[in-house]
What does this fold into?
Amino acid sequence: MSLNVGQVLERVVRRDRMGISELSRKLNVSRRTIYNWFDQKSLNPEIIWKVGTVIGHDFSVELPETFSKNSNYIHEAFDAHGEDQAKGDANSVYFWMNKYIKLLEKYNEILSQNNIEKSASETIAHHTMPRNNNRSIS
It folds into this structure.
C-alpha cells in the first residue's frame, strides 16, 4: 500500500525533533492547518518544500515524482528562501528567550558596575581629609 503525500509528510514531521507547535509558528500557520495537511492525498509542492526547509529534510527522497516535475521551481524558491530562513529563526520562542536573558544579564552587570562606582566615590569623598594650604604636614 502506497502512502499519500499527507501521510508521508506526517511521518517525517513526527520523526523530527521539532514539535508541531514550533513548526506551525515557523510556518506562520495554525496547528490545525498542519493536521489538515496530514489528511491530504496531494499537497502543493511549495508547502512540502517549506516544511522540508524548516525541519531540514529533503522530501525529494520520499516524493521524487513531485519534485522532479517542479525541480526548477523548487530550486528557485530554495535560493530565494535562504535569507528568509534566518528571519524565521528569529521568530522562535527560544531565540527571543535567549535574547531577553542576555539583555537582562547585561543590564544587571551595568547596574552592579554603577553601584560599585557610586559606593567607591562616596567612600572616597567621605574619607578624604580637607586640604589646608596654610599648614604644612611634617
